[in-house]
Request: fold
Amino acid sequence: METLVSVSLEWALFIGCIAIMLKTKDAQILFQSHQSNLILTLPAAALLLPTLFGFPWHIPPELIIPHLTYLAIFTISILKDLITILRKT
Reply:
């Protein structure tokens, strides 16, 4: 159930997470090729399930931006890794 408190809390956690990722330079590490980046397919799938299939949760429109931002971060990381693997073969 989307209440103002839950939406605000998720936005606060999203902004905090992005700030920490930028401060600790983890965002730069995510955008480098690592075989462990393929593990990010799990959270990417978790973000896509409710969007594509309406399962298991309804996403409030206010939270589309955080979902798409995380999805973009995960997708870029996964694609960088896949491109590196394909170039080696």
